[in-house]
Design a protein that fits this description.
This protein starts with a helix and ends with a strand. The longest helix has 15 residues, at 83-97. By secondary structure, it is α+β, with helices and mostly antiparallel strands. It has a 7-stranded antiparallel beta sheet with strand order 2-1-5-6-7-4-3, sandwiched between helices. It has helices spanning 4-7, 47-54, 83-97, 99-107, and strands spanning 13-18, 24-29, 32-34, 37-43, 57-62, 74-80, 114-121. The chain is 30% helix and 35% strand. It has a single domain (4-121), classed as Pnp Oxidase, Chain A.
Length: 122
């Protein structure tokens, strides 16, 4: 079992989500850890958000910015957060990633509203 406290200072996880035909798609993402959950912020029009609406099963592993796996794969279940919890998670993400998070917010505006989900380890 992975110790989430031990990974919270890492920068990237490789998130594996699944298409309707069960083919997997792996994407490096930023994350934050709180209350034994992994939180991920993305936008509503991204592929990962669309895939999660169909299948909440995920896997993730620590990785580099380019997606090279550097840790063990862990299975989990995603839960999409409602709008009133999103602001707190975005603040945590911005604190962890700093100025680069502000740039990412601006550059990703065309991809829809913020979409935040948690991952609970199975």
């Amino acid at each position: 079992m992975i110790n989430l406290e031990g990974i919270k200072n890492q920068k990237y996880i490789l998130l594996e989500t699944y298409r309707k035909d069960n083919r997997s798609v792996k994407t490096p993402v930023w994350f934050v850890v709180k209350d034994n959950l992994v939180y991920v912020v993305t936008r509503s029009q991204t592929g990962k958000a669309k895939r999660l609406k169909n299948n909440l099963q995920v896997r993730f592993a620590l990785c580099t910015i380019k997606g090279k796996v550097t840790g063990e794969w862990v299975s989990g279940t995603a839960k999409i957060l409602d709008k009133n919890k999103i602001k707190e998670v975005i603040k945590m993400r911005d604190k962890k990633y700093g100025f680069i998070a502000k740039i990412a917010k601006f550059l990703s505006k065309s991809k829809g509203e913020f979409f935040v989900f948690t991952i609970k380890i199975d």
